[in-house]
Write a structure and sequence with these properties.
Keywords: Signal
Biased composition (Pro residues): 49-59
Region (Disordered): 35-74
Biased composition (Low complexity): 60-73
Structural class: alpha+beta
Helix content: 10-25%
Number of strands: 10
Shape: elongated
Signal peptide: 1-17
Radius of gyration: 51 Å
């Protein structure tokens, strides 16, 4: 009886050992199969573009500025411009200044002022030559035929028949239309002006007399 029990126990142990050995072999086979599997194929990179490089976007053109909204723009003078009388028929006597220059401010008006505040200058060369008038920087003008000209007509003459900045010999009866310097007016916080200037007399000693009228230009 004891021999039978021992034989049965031995058989059970042998069966369990064989079962475990079979499991171990199966695991080794699976591991070997996984190790032997080929690695995945590498993914190919997309080909680089072969065309010309892209052009950077062009700068967009700046939007035009509305002159009416630009504080630095020069006002347009036309038939709709409303001029306001500043002064009328002021007499300016410019004394003889042999070989010297006399500066005239047309804002007030006033004779013999510093050059930085003057719109015109008179040079008396002495001798037989006539004196000359010239405009300061920023002043524009035109010689016209009649002192009956209106500010609107003056603006048209300055636009279409401007004077050069050179010296102009003085003769009795000359009539000039002038605009004062817009930049100087803005810097001094004063008004821009249209001026009608008449050479009413010239003397042999070089003294000249001018008659000036002025209008404030709006804007």
């Amino acid at each position: 009886m004891l021999a039978l029990l021992l034989a049965a126990g031995s058989a059970v142990l042998s069966w369990r050992a064989a079962d475990r050995a079979g499991d171990a072999v199966a695991r080794l086979d699976a591991l070997a199969a996984a190790t032997a599997a080929p690695p995945p194929a590498p993914t190919e990179a997309a080909p680089a573009p072969t065309g010309p490089p892209a052009e950077p976007p062009a700068d967009l053109p700046a939007e035009p500025t509305d002159p009416a909204l630009d504080p630095d723009a020069q006002p347009t003078l036309n038939a709709q411009t409303r001029y306001a009388v500043k002064y009328t028929a002021e007499t300016l006597r410019i004394p003889s200044a042999c070989s010297d220059t006399v500066y005239v401010d047309l804002d007030e008006p006033r004779v013999q002022v510093p050059s930085g505040t003057a719109e015109i200058r008179y040079y008396d060369p002495c001798g037989i030559r006539s004196g000359t008038l010239a405009m300061s920087e920023g002043v524009r003008g035109s010689e016209v035929e009649s002192e009956a000209v209106t500010p609107t007509e003056c603006a048209d003459q300055i636009r279409t028949r401007p004077l050069s900045t050179a010296e102009h010999p003085v003769r009795r009866g000359q009539v000039y239309c002038l605009t004062t310097s817009l930049d100087a007016a803005r810097s001094a916080a004063t008004t821009w002006k249209m001026v009608l200037l008449v050479v009413s007399a010239t003397a042999q000693d070089g003294t000249i007399t001018l008659q000036a009228s002025a209008w404030d230009i709006p804007g």
